[in-house]
Amino acid sequence: MILLQSQSKYLLQVLTNRLQNLDKGVELDCQWIEFDDVRFNVQVSMKNPHILLLSLSLPTPPPEAMFVGGLPVGAIEAIKAAYGTIVQILDPPKDTYNLTLKLNFNKLPSNEEAKQSFLAKIASVREVVLGAPLRIILKHLASRSVAPDMNRLVALVHRPDESFFLLPQPDKVTVIYPMRFKDSTDTVLATSFLQEFLEARRSAALSNAPLCQWSPTPPQELQGVPEEALSANAGFVSFVIYPRHVDGKKLDRTVWNLSTFHAYVNYHVKCSEGFMHTRMRRRVESLIEALDHAKSDLDQARKVETRTSFKRLSLNDSRSNSNSKGPISWR
């Protein structure tokens, strides 16, 4: 299995290239879209080459998701805690974007290793912003408590107009994903893929992994949730997170894995489709090659048969051949 990286490789490349060319007055304005419809925009002007504006557009939240001022709950505090005074939050953000950050390259640490580490942290801005409410819940789980301002059932956005749900408790947090796929083939492969999670969890090597359950119908924890939020054609996946899963450095990895679980499944479904298509193409090519060999062998056999066959003569041809040989001598 391949795990998605929290850092945006392209954003990290843009930041690194810009840092290496601060003395060049080059204007920059580029935008791109990454998985789950997260859009980025980077701008640098020739007047202030040491200032970089990074804008972020998040997936459209469903009505039940926890969004305040266009951002997930706790996102502003998470940005300030992660980047300090080096990065400023512009209010209002750029048009059509949820968040715009102002990065001053002159304020970066002087140490080269610390500088690269900070750029890598900026490249993980998606995790910082979208994972903010999940991080709050899991931090309280580590201390075996529940955030006082959290509802009994929390909905967090992870895809456009789609959310997953958390049921926080002092000793565990249950995370439930309604799995939706547009393509019927993806739905079949994803259903089989998700059911394998149950089988894999039973192995001794994964005894410390979170408990996993799959159900074709909504679990009881989702009672009272609007029907449109429960329209899942690939079933429902549940994970039970315990304090040992968010202890120390495990917190960051757990937050990222839970925030991008649907993208993780979708990625492996597409890889499975590509693998099967490759196998089918190779099989077809081998069959065509076998047919071509059989056809060439048949043509060769026909040529041999033509060279060794006798010509059938008519009665007139036979008589003419006999007369041409002259009278037969009986002596």
UniProtKB/TrEMBL annotation:
<comment type="similarity">
    <text>Belongs to the ARPC2 family.</text>
</comment>
<dbReference type="InterPro" id="IPR007188">
    <property type="entry name" value="ARPC2"/>
</dbReference>
<dbReference type="InterPro" id="IPR034666">
    <property type="entry name" value="ARPC2/4"/>
</dbReference>
<keyword id="KW-0009">Actin-binding</keyword>
<dbReference type="GO" id="GO:0030041">
    <property type="term" value="P:actin filament polymerization"/>
</dbReference>
<keyword id="KW-0966">Cell projection</keyword>
<comment type="function">
    <text>Functions as actin-binding component of the Arp2/3 complex which is involved in regulation of actin polymerization and together with an activating nucleation-promoting factor (NPF) mediates the formation of branched actin networks. Seems to contact the mother actin filament. Arp2/3 complex plays a critical role in the control of cell morphogenesis via the modulation of cell polarity development.</text>
</comment>
<dbReference type="GO" id="GO:0051015">
    <property type="term" value="F:actin filament binding"/>
</dbReference>
<dbReference type="GO" id="GO:0042995">
    <property type="term" value="C:cell projection"/>
</dbReference>
<dbReference type="GO" id="GO:0034314">
    <property type="term" value="P:Arp2/3 complex-mediated actin nucleation"/>
</dbReference>
<protein>
    <recommendedName>
        <fullName>Arp2/3 complex 34 kDa subunit</fullName>
    </recommendedName>
</protein>
<keyword id="KW-0206">Cytoskeleton</keyword>
<dbReference type="GO" id="GO:0005200">
    <property type="term" value="F:structural constituent of cytoskeleton"/>
</dbReference>
<dbReference type="GO" id="GO:0005885">
    <property type="term" value="C:Arp2/3 protein complex"/>
</dbReference>
<keyword id="KW-0963">Cytoplasm</keyword>
<comment type="subunit">
    <text>Component of the Arp2/3 complex.</text>
</comment>
<dbReference type="Pfam" id="PF04045">
    <property type="entry name" value="P34-Arc"/>
</dbReference>
